[in-house]
Amino acid sequence: MAIVCCVPAGPALPNRDMTVKEFKAWLKRFDSDHDGRISREELKQALRSLHTWFAWWKARQGMKEADSNRNGQIEDAQEMARLVAFAQQHLHMKISESYWG
């Protein structure tokens, strides 16, 4: 008997080493309503795609750190920068402004 493991269909998993531009492009794939903003639910779906434990909790924490006006959306460059910092610190993603390799 063979055991087969498969990754669910959907957006490809990002490389853990990426630029800010690549991070934004990856996150944009989860913008289900195409409004250019990321909600907590959309962030949760992005984290689930990484097979992150407690994605719902990490999405809540990410929103608490990034959503400066508490409207439930990541919508501007300043909030996105905070979300990048959260991903680096708490999700152990290596996100740089740019890289040469």
Total domains: 1
* Poorly predicted runs: 1-12
Mean pLDDT, all residues: 86
Element order: H for helix, E for strand = EHEHHEHE
Q: Which radius of gyration do the C-alpha atoms yield?
A: 14 Å
Shape: globular
GO molecular function: calcium ion binding
Keywords: Calcium, Repeat
Protein name: EF-hand domain-containing protein
Domain EF-hand: 18-53
Q: What this model shows, in words?
A:
The chain has 101 residues and is mainly α. It has a single domain (17-96), classed as EF-hand (Recoverin, domain 1), CATH 1.10.238. Helices cover 45% and strands 10% of the residues. It is built from four helices and four strands. The protein has helices at residues 20-28, 40-49, 55-66, 77-90, and strands at 17-19, 38-39, 73-74, 94-96. The strands form two sheets. The chain has a two-stranded parallel ribbon. The chain has a two-stranded antiparallel ribbon with strand order 2-3. Helix 2 packs across helix 3 (55-66). The longest helix is centred in the C-terminal third of the chain and has 14 residues, at 77-90. The radius of gyration is 14 Å and the shape is globular. Residues 18-53 form the EF-hand domain. InterPro entries: Centrin_CML-like, EF-hand-dom_pair, EF_Hand_1_Ca_BS, EF_hand_dom.
